[in-house]
Amino acid sequence: MKKILISMLALLCLTTACSKAENKPTPEPSSNPVISVVDLPVTQAPIAQPEFETTWALTSTDGYGILESTFSNIKIIMNSPGTEIFGVQTYHEGLPLIHGVTYHLSFDLSATIERPVEVFIMNVDDSAIEFTQMLTATENGTHYEFDIKIQGNTSWNGRLAFNTGAPTPETTYDYHEVSISNLILQEASDGPTEPNIKINQTGYLPNAQKKVVFPFDQGDCFQVIDANTNTVVYTAPILRKLYNESTKETTFYGDFSDFTTPGRYRLQSQLNGTSYEFEIQEDLYHNLLDQTVKMLSLQRCGQTLTADWAGPFAHEQCHTQIATIYGTDQQLDVSGGWHDAGDYGRYVPTGTKAVIDLMLAYQMNPHLFTDAIGIPESGNGVVDILDEARVELEWLLKMQNGWGGVYDKVITAQFPDFIMPDQDQAPLYIMQEMTTSTGDFVGAMALAYSIYQDIDPEFAQRCLDAAKLSWDYLQSATLSVYTNPEGFSAGQYSDDNDTDERYLASAALYAATGEQKYLDSVKTIFQASADQLTGVQWKTMGSYGTYLMLKLSDVQNTDSAFYQQLLSKLITDAEQVLNATSNDGYFVSLYSAYAWGSNADIANNGLILALANDIRANVNYVNSAADHLHYLLGRNSLNLSFVTNSGIHSPQHLHHRPASAANALLPGALVGGPDSALEDPVTQSMFNGDTAPAKCYVDDAESYSTNEVAIYWNSPLVALISAVENAN
Questions:
Q1: Alpha-carbon distance 478 to 38, whole Å?
Q2: What is the mean pLDDT of residues 612-616?
Q3: The domain at 285-496 falls in which architecture?
Q4: Tens of pLDDT along 513-548?
Q5: 209 pLDDT exceeds 90?
Q6: In this structure, are residues 199 and 634 in contact, taking their beta carbons and an 8 Å threshold?
Q7: d(CA 625, CA 581)
Q8: Model pTM?
Q9: Contact 328/290 with Cβ under 8 angstroms?
Q10: At what angle do helices 348-364 and 598-615 cross, to 10 degrees?
Q11: Whole-Å CA distances, 633 to 242, 246, 282, 290
Q12: If 218 and its partner were Cys, which of 119, 273, 602, 698 is the partner (CB 3.0–4.6 Å)?
């Protein structure tokens, strides 16, 4: 596919790095110049000036010139030509020059006097000249075209230059002007090229902000191309140069928010860039939303998954054997719920976080969810997201003991091989109750009461009764911290702080009941430990509690001072996320902290913005939340949609036992993403400490630290997608 590059924008820029070409031999031109007429694409929107960066520079050694430009014309005002052709040079650096690729260069050249002008292309990194040609500029103007095959090393720092000094020391010129216009540089090959412009591969809602990222200098403008007609429908400038620590790239960005016409498109830049195709359309994320919820259904444990809805992930009942409470001879039936991730463990901390996300997603945007995503309960009159949440809630109820404590997890001693779940017959162990798990449980059950009381009052009351019992237990229970016993290697999920869980528990129960003792507990914890109450991750649940309190009108009406404290806390949390994006080339909030589950961190930070916006509408929160979603769906340094079956380029080799056993791809699953700590043998063999943090990812089933999936990674994605769609 040819990549068309249109006229270059330039401003005056002085530099001393000028003429590496003077001592180089002059190769033969790649082709002879020809005269022709080129019809340029029509710009559909006015072009703004770049914010910080110019793309053309003029340098003078013994001559003197001034560079002026409009978007469509480069003008060099020659006051003094000096004594050498390279004495006045106008150039653009940062061009990609790929070894073996043939590029087509064309432009119109004219001058107010007849005179020679030298054009050349070189690799700045090694000073190798790939092309040079002495041309003649005339008052009438000439159109030149050349095919240039790159013979030297691949470089991302190529220079295209025009020398307009005097060709000899004896040559004298009076004041004159040289003009270069209609400049196009494109790959000459019609074959497929690898997209390098980073976009959300699913696409954008018509009226939403639409940003695109360029991982290196790709000129001054980019175009939106109709994928069906192959015509230019919109042109916009490339803006802002930023060195991005997390990717070790110098990134630029563009914005085509003003283009709102539904359709299928791709982007191409001025300097040899293209993107994957994407869509602009209303309700764009509906199918994606359904798939991310349905992914959870394929993680179900303890029941038969039939082929009509589970496809290759169908299996018989699994993990229904009676489990033993570790360290005792007591046994319980704890079947059901969801497998946590790519293994078959079931964990209360992650399960409660997941169901809270689903219930809040529904509570904030109920109109976006249907009763027809293709799970066994579809068509029962209850939206499927609540049917799916109930699967986990019913299991969580089994994890409560008789006095209110909640067991932490159900696991086998070792992770199983890559087998289907019903083939895993290893003994099951229930690990002791934890105050953290108990607090999480109370929060989930109290919220469930609020969500289900009009759908299934009996079930809702069971949830509320269970929440109250566990909250009472917490009042006398002291912090307990889980560690795996000797001989166990299953997921540990240790948490050494239960303040946020107790806060969430009290907030959710106050929201459900309005009872004073729960409000008193919220206030006590908040006043003593507000700094510990940030986050929507399995280990840091505080922002959930703050959000639930802020949703209550009676708090605002009866205690405005406390309400303002709560509001300030949530807004501060959101602003911290927002501020973290300001120096990131991909508009996300991790800086260089790409840890295990970095994609979940991205989704969770986006969720905090969505929660804050739900309380106090702020277009900056809306746009930044969408930026986090765009990253997950392809606008990242890897040019990869991290959600399976979404976009053109997405993970294919998950660390997921059923997927490996069935040799199938789990749809709608968010993978963990880059992990700069390199915590599995695959990443350790491929990367080192010099690898950019955001690029430490491998699409490999053995890369459990980067390519696993998890219920509590999908759940904030569900909430984030629904928030972004609703806000636009």
A1: 78
A2: 97
A3: Alpha/alpha barrel (1.50)
A4: 999 999 999 999 999 999 999 999 999 999 999 999
A5: yes
A6: yes
A7: 11
A8: 0.84
A9: no
A10: 40
A11: 22, 18, 17, 15
A12: 273
